[in-house]
């Protein structure tokens, strides 16, 4: 009986520890996803959605607007070149919905019409996407993906949705994102900067 009692206690401790770990939530602040079949008149538009879990706001005074985070968005083409970057504000418990065709690919740095590539998102306390030194967990998101039923990309298309994937961010990756985004903003003559849909204006 004593052995069984010890085993029960150990099992209970493991469950409690596991529950405690789960209660901490997702502390990621760097995410990646992809887009495909973009800017295709025969295919539907894809959407990047980002929400702010509101955790920061619970530490502030009642009735004081607070808890906002910035989503740094970096858009790459299928040649691994950054084409656009921007920062979009997401208030506590707010939702940001970005059209891939209209907001994230409409102003490419090179003027190229992009159809597939990678999107990276960083959560930050401040608004400058060329400075990733103030990351903060609290943003979470999903991405809809436009899939063709066959390899040649002909209609019909289907839409799937998946969470943004948490990613590792090294110092070299941080420097590359900052430098590429700074280049796009400074030398793009107005190009290379994506736009932000007004918050909570879902579509």
SSE diagram, text form:
Layout: H1 2-23, E1 30-35, E2 47-52, E3 69-77, E4 82-90, E5 95-99, H2 100-104, E6 117-124, E7 139-148, E8 157-163, E9 165-166, H3 171-187
Antiparallel strand pairs: 1-6, 1-9, 2-5, 2-7, 3-4, 3-6, 7-8
Structural class: alpha+beta
- Helicity range of the residues? 10-25%
The overall strand count is 9
Instruction: Give the ordered list of helices and strands.
Output: HEEEEEHEEEEH
Q: What count of structural domains?
A: 1
Q: What share of residues are in beta strands?
A: 25-35%
Mean pLDDT metric: 84
Shape: globular
CATH topology: Hypothetical Protein Tm1070, Chain: A
Main CATH class = Mainly Beta
CATH H-tier superfamily: TM1070-like
- Low-pLDDT parts are 1-23
Quaternary class: single chain
Largest sheet: 5 strands, antiparallel
How far apart are the first and last residues' alpha carbons, in Å? 61 Å
Widest sheet, order of strands: 4-3-6-1-9
H/I helix tally: 3
How large, in whole angstroms, is the Cα Rg?
20 Å
